[in-house]
Every structure is written in structure tokens, then in C-alpha cells.
Amino acid sequence: MSHLFCDKKFDEFMASASPSFRKFIPQLLHIFVLPIFYFAFMLVYRPFDVNSLLGHDWFGVHTTILTAIILASILLTRLLYYFLPMKVNYTLYSFWCLAEIVFTSFFTSLYLYLVLGKSMPYFDVLTTLFKHLFFTLVIPYSITALSLRVYDYHRQNQNSEITQIKRLRFYDDKHNLKLVVSSDSVLYISAEENYVNIYYLESGRVKNFVLRSTMKALEEVCGDHNLIRCHRSYYVNPLHVKILRKDSTGVVFAELDSDDSRRIPVTKKYYGMLSELL
């Protein structure tokens, strides 16, 4: 019997970047909120002596064009961030946002240098635009990051299986208790004729327990302990799913974070529900 407790999940959560930062909707927030804030902030406050930089007569036109350049630049960097397979903590994410401002500064300063014909050297224009963008965009960056962090913090607190030990009891077809494990330690369950194979972690090693039962009989107990049906012959624990990957034939498999190299098939019927929990 395993008595594994996954407190380390919470520590990993605190050390890593917010899960919401990797999702699609937060990327849209960055793509649209940052340029809109910049445009409104420039028109209302005109900070950092921006009038002398852009000129009084065509200030609105130049601000609009700069906003469009910022939108296009952030669109490129956010698409790269969304599709790039990397694990980012909060420090690295801050550097990513800083690099995003530098990237945007190159194009906005190029517009000022070439189109407006600024007499100062290009790198002086670049330095000026970087300061201009940094002190303007740090406000929406901070608000967006803080909002997503608070959202994930509250979501984490509501996730009882992360903070509590929950025992999962397996009975055979004669209602005899055969196995008791913590629900967090279960990796997946597979069906084989009149038996099911329960794969779980004990002392860091993958164990297999064969139980005479059916997937239908386990439906209620698995549902109560957040084991998700991903195939007619499989239940999987979302806490241990590292990635969902599609092979060359179009079949989706769940790869786990354990040493067990077996891939768990995921059918279209259950894919949406499982992916929402990752």
C-alpha cells in the first residue's frame, strides 16, 4: 500500500511560472491590452516629452502608427511564446517581457528614424524609445501578470487534491478490499478482460496491482478522486500527465511524468475534458 503525499506539487507551483501564462487567452490579453493601454496613455497624458519626439501637428497619426507597430511586435513574440516548448519560471518570464519591449523598441525607433527623419543617431533614438516604452508598458504588464497570478493562487487553494491526502480504496468483484493508496500516487488504470491494472507510485517506483474488476465498477470511485476517463480501457490521473502528444497517425497519447514509458491513448471523446485540466 502506498501513502505518498504530493505536497511537492504546491512547491513546484510556487517555483514555476503561473499555469495561466501558458494558455491562449492570456496571450490575447497581452496582444491587445498592451497596445490599447499605450495608445490611450499617450493621448491622455503625453508623458516623457513625447510631443517633441513625435511633433505636435501629426501627434495622433504617429501615435496610431506606433501603436500598430507595437501590436504587430507583441503578436509575433506572444505567438512564439505560446508555441515554444519551454518551461518558464517567474524570473525568466520577466526577462521575456523585457526582451519583448526591446524587440518592440527596435521597430518603433526604426519608424521614427526613417520616416520622421530624426537628426539624432539611430541608437540614441532606440535608447529613447526603449525608456519611453518601458515606463509606459510596465503598468499593463504588471497588472496583467498580477491578475493571472492571483487567479491561479485562488484556483490552487480550491484544488483539494493538491493540499490534502485522499485515500483511494479498490474492491474486487466480490466487494473485498484489496488495495488502499493515496489518490495522488495513482498514475493510470488500464483494463484487460475481467481485470484492471492499477499503476501507482510507491517510494518513487512504479508499482502494478492487478484487480479483478471492471472499468464500469471503478467509474464512481475514480470520479470521486479525479481520475479521468481518457479511453474506453483507461483512466488517467491529470496530476501526472506531462504532455498530450499526437503521433504521425493522428492518435493522441498522454505522456506521464514517471519512469513508466508507456503512452496512454486519449480518444477524441475524452480529449477536451482532459486537456482542460492540464
Account of the 3D structure:
The protein has about 280 residues and is of the alpha+beta class. The protein folds into 2 domains: about 10-155, no CATH class; about 165-275, OB fold (Dihydrolipoamide Acetyltransferase, E2P) (Beta Barrel), CATH 2.40.50. Helix content is about 50%, strand content about 20%. The chain has a 5-stranded antiparallel beta sheet. Strands 8-9-10 form a 3-stranded antiparallel beta sheet. It is elongated and about 85 Å long. Mean pLDDT is about 85; it is low at about 1-15 and about 160-165.
Brief descriptors of the model:
278 residues; 50% helix; 9 helices; alpha+beta; OB fold (Dihydrolipoamide Acetyltransferase, E2P)
* Number of DSSP E strands: 10
**Order of strands in the sheet with most strands:** 5-4-3-7-6
Main sheet characteristics: 5 strands, antiparallel
The H/E string reads HHHHHHHEEEEEHEEEEEH
**How many domain modules?**
2
Task: Specify the number of helices.
Answer: 9
Low-confidence stretches: 1-16, 160-164
Quote the average pLDDT.
83
Tell me the strand percentage band: 15-25%
Sum up the overall morphology in one term. Answer: elongated
| Helix vs. strand class | alpha+beta
**What radius of gyration results from the CA coordinates?**
26 Å
State the distance separating the first and last CA atoms: 27 Å
Helix content: 40-55%
Overview in brief:
The chain is of the alpha+beta class and 278 residues long. The protein is built from nine helices and ten strands. The protein is elongated.
Give the arrangement of secondary structure elements:
Elements: H1 8-15, H2 24-45, H3 50-54, H4 59-83, H5 90-114, H6 122-157, H7 160-163, E1 167-171, E2 177-182, E3 186-192, E4 195-202, E5 205-212, H8 219-224, E6 228-231, E7 234-236, E8 241-246, E9 252-256, E10 264-266, H9 268-276
Antiparallel strand pairs: 1-2, 3-4, 3-7, 4-5, 6-7, 8-9, 9-10
Helix pairs in contact: 2-4, 2-6, 4-5, 5-6
